[in-house]
Amino acid sequence: MKIITNNRKALHDYQVLDTYEAGIVLKGSEAKSLRQGAASLSDAHGELNNGEVYLFNLHISPYRFNTGPSSNPKRRRKLLLNMREIKKLYGLVQQKGNTL
Prior knowledge:
The protein has helices spanning 8-13, 28-35, 83-94; strands spanning 23-24, 39-40, 45-49, 52-56, 59-60, 77-80.
């Protein structure tokens, strides 16, 4: 799988305990924009909500050839993880000082 974007700032500013490979729910124009490399993880963070993981503030620039309505570039996006991984993340987040 090709890595589209990476948050080098987070690796510098925070201690990374574990990494995961996750899918992400996108709209069609967002997928096309990501293929062009138009994404930024600099302000992004994850949250657990009702047994699901969401990514907030991932900036995906609007696809310039999109003819339909454009969506919010920093909208909430669902991450696709196994339930076992979500439970492990939930346990880690409950510990003091850990975030997604």
